[in-house]
Amino acid sequence: MSAHADLLARHKAVLPGWLALYYDEPIEIVRGEGRRVTDAEGNQYLDFFAGILTNAVGYDIAEISDAVRAQLSNGVVHTSTLYLIRQQVELAEKIAELSGIPDAKVFFTNSGTEANETAMMLATQFRRSNQVLALRNSYHGRGFGTIAVTGNRGWSASSLSPVNVSYVHGGNRNRGPFKDFTDADYIRACVADLREVLATATAGDVACMIAEPIQGVGGFTTPPDGLFKAFKEVLDETGILLIADEVQTGWGRTGEHFWGIQAHGVVPDMMTFAKGLGNGFAIGGVVARGDVMDSLTANSISTFGGNPISTAAANATLDYVIEHDLQANALKLGTKLMNGLRHVGDENPVVGDVRGKGLMIGVELVEPGGDEPSARAAVKVLEETRKRGLLIGKGGLNGNVLRLAPPMTLTEPEADEALEILAESIAVTNEELSR
Ligand code: PMP
């Protein structure tokens, strides 16, 4: 048995069966540099999934490694969040300022799940209600609260969570009953649905709405700009808090704005974040209105949340994103990729939709000649791109959406290289499915 096959057998023996691995022959990544990773067999890949968007800036970035090494050289990996941690305070100051939320305060966690659990804990405490609104097709994590607001049957089917959740429309723009509407009519229909849900399915005293500005796991579904402003106007009538889950959309990835929610011209009451902030180091958190954050009267602490290593990495990552204006790069190269992919789509009926913002691009695949979601096409494109040296992601309720989200340091030649591989891989898939 090869070393690779042996590792896979051991993985299967000791890790849960539902912990799915990508590819017929799963990959073991052993090195990274820039936007490229190398597997245990020496194959190199351009990484267009960036560890599910955790790698905001790229691999082996000196500024980030140096910041972590400097902290390690002090001999302190972690003591306790019961003590002052200088870089935690500095990071909180930066995020509070960037958030645009008035009197913002920040609490750090280790993951996006914990960030959303914390946000919902704050909202339910502040509003004295366990009623929560979420969008259909959403993903917010796999804790007992977050799984309840995850409106995606593939991820939340086994939840017996006690959170009282009602789902509203607005999550999956080009599927469902409003898919053929104009953007303006779509927003009107979603607002009418929200009002209907509030009047019929809830007792009125709802704590919060939690929503992704662009749904990540749901397939990079992108609502029309302004949807969340229209929602917020309804929520504000009775003081319902809006939580923007920026776990995938934060840090300039969407190009036009630093946070995904800003495309809607609205400031939420809370934002949650994780993934890209640590460029691979585990960190998440909540930034909230001061009165909401301070409404908690009991003690709360995260043992590791905001620790010296993760906050050192996060400060260095955030500084890098801002100093190199990676948001502008995301807009420029995202636009280029999107245009290129639309062109590929024109020639290949297997492409049903190309959507997203900045370097968060979804390519929805359908059975050629129709509108039926094609999971088999997505599996095939993933294998074909891998063969040609490109790693990409997939998602969507039906597993039929390609997810493209490279590190934001992507260069123009790398964008061209990826486009060429994608064009070939999609054409091969289109041909096979059309036979
Ligand atoms: N929110 C969103 C939008 C996510 O995409 C994810 C992870 N895919 C989470 C929350 C949960 O984050 P984590 O896996 O770090 O707990």
Record field, number of beta strands = 15
Kindly identify the CATH topology of the largest domain.
Aspartate Aminotransferase, domain 2
Radius of gyration: 21 Å
The H-level CATH homologous superfamily of the largest domain, spelled out, is Type I PLP-dependent aspartate aminotransferase-like (Major domain)
Terminal CA distance reads: 37 Å
In the CATH scheme, the class of the largest domain would be Alpha Beta
Contiguous low-pLDDT stretches (5 residues minimum) are: none
Binned, the helix content reads 25-40%
Largest sheet: 7 strands, mixed
Q: What spatial order of strands do you see in the largest sheet? A: 4-10-9-8-7-5-6
* Mean pLDDT value: 96
EC number: 2.6.1.44
Pfam families: Aminotran_3 (PF00202)
Enzyme class: transferase
Keywords: Aminotransferase, Pyridoxal phosphate, Transferase
Structure at a glance:
By secondary structure, the chain is α/β, with parallel strands linked by helices. It is 39% helix and 16% strand.
Give an overview of the whole structure:
The chain is of the alpha/beta class and 435 residues long. The chain folds into 2 domains: 3-60 and 326-434, Aspartate Aminotransferase, domain 1 (Alpha-Beta Complex); 63-324, Aspartate Aminotransferase, domain 2 (3-Layer(aba) Sandwich), CATH 3.40.640.10. It has 13 helices and 15 strands. The protein has helices spanning 3-14, 50-53, 62-73, 86-99, 112-127, 153-156, 183-200, 227-237, 290-293, 308-323, 326-347, 375-387, 412-434; strands at residues 29-33, 36-39, 44-47, 105-109, 131-135, 164-168, 208-211, 241-245, 270-273, 284-288, 351-357, 360-365, 390-391, 393-395, 401-404. The strands form 3 sheets. A 7-stranded mixed β-sheet has the order 4-10-9-8-7-5-6, sandwiched between helices. It has a 4-stranded mixed β-sheet with strand order 1-2-3-13. Helix 3 runs antiparallel to helix 10, helix 4 (86-99) packs across helix 10 and helix 7 packs parallel to helix 8 (227-237). It is globular. The two termini are 37 Å apart. The model has no long low-confidence stretch (mean pLDDT 96). The structure holds 4'-deoxy-4'-aminopyridoxal-5'-phosphate (PMP). The site of 4'-deoxy-4'-aminopyridoxal-5'-phosphate (PMP) has 16 residues, from helix 5. Belongs to the class-III pyridoxal-phosphate-dependent aminotransferase family. Keywords: Aminotransferase, Pyridoxal phosphate, Transferase. Pfam families: Aminotran_3.
